[in-house]
Amino acid sequence: MHMLNIDELLKTFCITEEDIQARHSLKDKLPIFSSELIDKFFNEHLKDNKEVAHYFRYVDIDVL
User: What is the pLDDT along the chain (64 residues), one digit of tens a residue?
Assistant: First the structure.
């Protein structure tokens, strides 16, 4: 049986220690970015679209 070695896996996919650190720092910021994107998309594309608005009638989300 072959044991998976994390160092070999990282080298195979060309992932460095700096990449891992950057991903850890992004982990805390991504929810903020995604929330802003969702709010902007909703306000610019969905809120006033009558064909789509009825799908949000029964959804409990803060932007409504």
Answer: 566 788 888 888 888 888 888 888 887 777 888 888 888 888 887 778 877 777 766 555 554 4
63 within some domain: no
41 part of a folded domain: yes
Query: What are the respective helix, strand and coil percentages of the chain, to the nearest 5?
Result: 70, 0, 30
Structurally, the chain folds into a number of domains equal to: 1
Q: Please report, for residues 1, 38, 43, the alpha-carbon distance to residue 35 in angstroms, rounded to integers and kept in the order given.
A: 44, 5, 12
In a domain, 1, yes or no: no
- For residue 10, the enclosing domain spans 6-56
- The model carries a pTM of 0.42
